Amino acid sequence: MHSSPTVLAVVPARAGSKGIPGKNLRTVAGRSLVRRAVESARSAALIDAVVVTTDGDAIAAEARAAGADVVRRPADLAGDEASSESALLHVLDELEAAGTGLPEVLVFLQATSPFIDPDDLDTAIRRVSEGHADVVFAAAPSHAFLWRVAADGSAVAVNHDAATRPRRQDRAAEYRETGASYVMRTDGFRQHRHRFHGRVELIAVDPAGAIDIDDETDLIVAEATADVTAEARSEVAADITADATAGAVAPQTQDHDPSPTRAAPALNGAP
Question: Where are the alpha helices (DSSP H) in the chain?
Answer without folding.
Answer: 33-43, 57-66, 84-97, 118-129, 186-192, 216-245
